[in-house]
Amino acid sequence: MRVAEGGESVGFNGSIPGAARLHLVDGVALLRPEEQVFAAMLTGFANRQLARNLARTTVEGRENTVKALAWAR
Fold first, then answer.
1. Which pick of 18, 46, 50, 62 has the fewest CB atoms within 10 Å?
2. Pairwise CA distance, residues 18 & 47, whole Å
3. Are 19 and 25 in contact (CB under 8 A)?
4. Residue 3 belongs to what H/E stretch?
5. Contacts of 63 (CB under 8 A, 6+ apart)
6. Tens digits of per-residue pLDDT, 36-70?
7. Phi, psi of 46 (to 5 degrees)
8. Confidence (pLDDT) at 37
9. What is the pLDDT of residue 22?
10. Of 14, 20, 15, which Cα lies nearest the Cα of 33?
11. Could you tell me which of 35, 34, 58 has the C-alpha nearest to residue 45?
12. DSSP 3-state helix, strand, coil percentages of the chain (rounded to 5)?
């Protein structure tokens, strides 16, 4: 952690855009937890790849591969 000129700490404060804690509310049950968690994981997977400037077609192809593997079980 770094310390700014005024003495206050600068760095990670636990607030990350897209973090699960920002999307989930305490005491609320998921209707279809397996499907919803899988969809959220795929969204995060796609976002990480897009952040690396990969082509959308590449990301979609990889996403389709993951879906095929998940549904084949």
1. 18
2. 10
3. no
4. strand 2-3
5. 42, 45, 46
6. 889 989 999 999 999 999 999 999 999 999 999 99
7. -65, -45
8. 87
9. 55
10. 20
11. 58
12. 55, 5, 40
How far apart CA 1 and CA 52 sit, in angstroms, is 26
Query: Residues near 62 by Cβ (< 8 Å), separated by ≥ 6?
Result: 45, 49
Task: Return the half-sphere exposure (C-beta side, CA atoms, 13 A cut-off) of residue 26.
Answer: 0
What is the model's pLDDT at position 11? 52
The DSSP element (H or E) to which 9 belongs, if any, is strand 9-10
pTM: 0.60
